[in-house]
Design brief:
By secondary structure, this protein is of the alpha/beta class. It has nine helices and nine strands. It has one domain: Alpha-Beta Barrel (TIM Barrel), CATH 3.20.20.190. Strands 1, 2, 3, 4, 5, 6, 7, 8 and 9 form a nine-stranded mixed beta sheet that branches. The mean pLDDT is 97. It holds the Pfam family GDPD.
Length: 280
């Protein structure tokens, strides 16, 4: 997909450490910083729109109701995006609340955009900036227990996302990410050439997880805390073509250590820091 002499910089949810996550301002700022890839998450609305959101509900940590009220942590799932039409989803604000984990984040009013709106906005901005085309790393937020409740069943979920990517002709620059193997298996079956990334939690072993998937994905995306030289050496020996792009690396010392182990890319909430490190 890309030919680079250095690891790719993936802006996590745009640049979550700097601007509200998964919003147009965050994606545009990451683009200006110079990220190679925009990482984002998608869910599905009641009217089958592909919505950019990390949760299939409104997070109490970052969102306000349409009338500007905070959302109680105990009522988050009552704001189920899969049960709301997009016109209603857009009325929630998910940019003004200060995220407790990101004190440097600059807050501003922002809504959850559609995937098609992100693609339109970013592609136009890329041309205006005169910079190389950006890649898209799109995580489909899927859990088997959520089927039919917070998300469509896998076949429809994958088809809805692929339809948008085909429409905007960005599939060759896109990697589909998921923790749910069913999503990647379906995507690979429908579009064998599509780039896929198997995401892994900290308690999931790398090689057994790839074997269980049933095919070697383009990318393995482990929790960065599980990355060590022994694991890297083992996966490189077993699958030389498999790219390693850990998530989510926010401390410069961790970035430096992982770069020393030959990562193909790094996903970070602070792409400005990673870009500065690479420049040095």
């Amino acid at each position: 997909m890309f030919s680079y002499s250095r690891p790719l910089v993936h802006g996590h949810r745009g640049c979550r450490g700097l601007l509200p996550e998964n919003t147009l301002p965050a994606f545009l700022h990451a683009l200006k910083l110079g990220v190679d890839v925009l990482e984002l998450d998608v869910v599905i609305s009641a009217d089958h729109e592909v919505v950019v959101s990390h949760e299939p509900w409104m997070s109490s940590a970052i969102c306000l109701t349409p009338d500007g009220q905070p959302i109680s942590p105990g009522t988050e799932t009552q704001h189920n995006l899969y049960q709301l039409p997009y016109a209603t989803i857009r009325r929630y604000d998910c940019g003004q609340r200060q995220h407790s984990d990101f004190p440097a984040q600059l807050n501003e009013p922002a809504y959850k955009p559609l995937l098609r709106e992100v693609l339109t906005t970013v592609e136009i901005a890329t041309r205006q900036l005169g910079r190389p085309a950006v890649g898209y790393s799109i995580e489909l937020k899927s859990e088997p227990a959520h089927d039919g409740i917070f998300q469509p069943f896998p076949a429809q979920f994958v088809e809805l996302v692929l339809a948008v990517l085909h429409e905007y002709q960005v599939l060759p620059r896109t990697t589909l990410l998921c923790f749910d193997p069913r999503i990647l298996q379906l995507a690979q079956r429908l579009v064998p050439a599509v780039a896929t990334c198997l995401l892994l939690e900290a308690d999931q072993a790398w090689l057994p997880s790839v074997k269980k998937l049933g095919f070697v994905p383009t990318v393995l995306g482990p929790d960065f805390r599980t990355v060590n030289l022994e694991a890297v050496t083992a996966v490189r020996a077993a699958h030389p073509s498999l790219q390693l792009i850990p998530w989510t690396v926010n401390q410069p010392d961790d970035m430096q250590r992982l770069l020393g182990w030959g990562m193909d890319g790094i996903t970070t909430d602070y792409p400005d820091q990673l870009l500065a490190l690479l420049a040095r």
